[in-house]
Specification:
Elements (H helix, E strand, L loop, with lengths): L1 E5 L4 H12 L3 E6 L2 H8 L3 E4 L17 E4 L11 H24 L8 E7 L6 E5 L10 H14 L7 E7 L1 E3 L5 H10 L15 E3 H13 L5 E5 L7 H12 L9 H8 L4 H4 L2 E3 L2 H5 L9 H9 L1
Parallel strand pairs: 1-2, 1-4, 2-3, 4-5, 5-7, 6-11, 7-10, 8-9
Helix pairs in contact: 1-6, 3-4, 5-7, 7-11
């Protein structure tokens, strides 16, 4: 297959590109720095594109079988007014420009599938089991971003594409994202239940994140939202205790919600709120999780 990937130099994107190359796909990547992307990723065709500035080169769109859209500014930063605008624009404007480019391509040359990133933040703060049929949350920055992001991707449906919206939880990886930060805090003995610890902690091993993306590309039955989360629901407090046990460190020191907000500002929403998302669509599609249980996932990543 011919696959175009945005956000290909990120932690998830680079692993996805490696998996696509390994199975024999022809991969085109869109990156702000095409030369650096080609050097990092290897056997790819790299083209330059800044998602917020305009439409991507049509050479990346024409004759592609599928597009995987992972581009977006990291949300793991203090949410200043400027940072929030960058987070929003990198996703909403980037996806809008991508779909606009698809619309200019002759129908016979258009991709068949668009797999577009999203986030469990779509649901807002929900402590009851939440599948893909649940409506969007109404409060907070993350539901607003995810709702607008998905709306832009869904415009590709009118162009005849099969659109999959990958609502990712906290992606656990050995050297990228949240886990290295939390591991360091745990090793110093300052990691424990945050804001009470009863809030859901929707997580997924990076191997399954990439596996679900591949499954969404390949399965013609995949359509609409898919919660990219492991089937084992845990709270933030349970995650902290499991991580502490793995690292042989105590993980009982609580941090009240107001303290987290003082340290992280509005971005504390990432830590203090969450949805108890379940992978109903993934199960319906027959996806088999490589790491369904948190202790086994942490063993794999931290060993």
């Amino acid at each position: 297959m011919r696959i175009t990937v945005t956000g290909a130099t990120g932690g998830i994107g680079s692993l996805l590109v490696s998996a696509l190359i390994e199975r024999g796909d022809e991969v085109t990547v869109l990156s702000r720095n095409a030369e650096a992307a080609a050097e990092k990723l290897g056997d790819v065709r790299a083209l330059a594109w800044n998602p917020a500035d305009g439409t991507p080169p049509l050479a990346a769109i024409e004759h592609a079988d599928a597009i995987v859209n992972l581009a977006g500014e990291s949300v793991a930063q203090r949410w200043s007014t400027e940072a929030k605008q960058r987070i929003l624009d990198s996703r909403v404007l980037g996806t809008r420009h991508l779909v606009q480019a698809i619309a200019t391509v002759e129908e016979s040359r258009r991709p068949v599938t668009l797999v577009s990133g999203s986030a469990i933040g779509f649901y807002g703060d929900r402590h009851q089991p939440t599948d893909e049929t649940a409506p969007a949350g109404t409060d907070g920055f993350l539901p607003r971003v995810a709702t607008a992001w998905e709306a832009e991707a869904r415009k590709a449906e009118a162009l005849g594409l099969r659109v999959v919206l990958l609502r990712s939880g906290d992606v656990l990886a050995a050297h990228d994202g949240l886990l290295p930060i939390l591991s360091k805090l745990t090793k110093f003995g300052v990691m424990g239940p945050l804001g009470g610890g009863k809030q859901p902690f929707p997580w997924i091993h990076v191997v399954d994140e990439v596996g679900l993306i591949l499954h969404a590309v390949d399965s013609h039955r995949a359509n609409g939202p898919i919660n990219a989360v492991a089937p084992g629901l845990v709270t933030q407090g349970e995650f902290a205790r499991c991580l502490g046990k793995k690292l042989h460190r105590p993980a009982f020191m609580p941090a009240p919600g107001f303290a987290v907000k003082l340290l992280r500002g509005e971005m504390a929403e990432l830590i203090l709120e969450g949805a108890a998302a379940t992978p109903a669509a993934a199960r319906e599609l027959g996806y088999s999780f490589a790491f369904p249980d948190l202790p086994v996932a942490l063993d794999d990543l931290l060993d």
